[in-house]
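fyi for ur records
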Amino acid sequence: MTRLRPWLIIGAALLLAGALVCLIIREYQARQAGTEVALRVQQMDPRSLLSGHYVQLTFIEEMPAGLACEQTMPGGSAAQPEREEAWIALRTNGDHHSFAGVGMTRQDAARHGSLQLRGTATCVGRSDTQVLLMIGLDRFHASQKEAETLEAVMRGPGDHAVHARVSVGKDGRARLAGLKVDGRETRLDWFGR
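which gave:
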């Protein structure tokens, strides 16, 4: 039995490494096959934006013209969807996509916008004109050099256009594909394509 122990440990390590590689490849393929959209990232103070070589992503959208936040939530703001079945609808808005509405099912959300993804939406504070989107993405990790470059851009004068490039799969799940700051795009590309 003691002679087999090293081989069992090696076999278990290879099995776990193989499972990890399969998971990475499957997620990469799902991201590549998804519909890619650009979502605005809330402007933040760059001193708190980057720490530990990641960018904190916060998706706060303006409500569609003529609609109040409560009107887009099923049952009003007191009954916002917090379950896995909740869907967020997006619509094309120039060079990016914007919030269009929420539905408890994908079909309900499709009435508001042409692209639906899993997530939840919450009215921002007492504002009736903004909504916070929670789509399972909250950080963009970068190398130290890339993080310092993004930080330098964000600390520069003026407003900066910040968009997260998000791949929405057939399953409705959002997968981060990259980050675009003032036209400078950083892509997540594990295989160098």
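DSSP finds five helices and twelve strands in the chain. thats all i got for now
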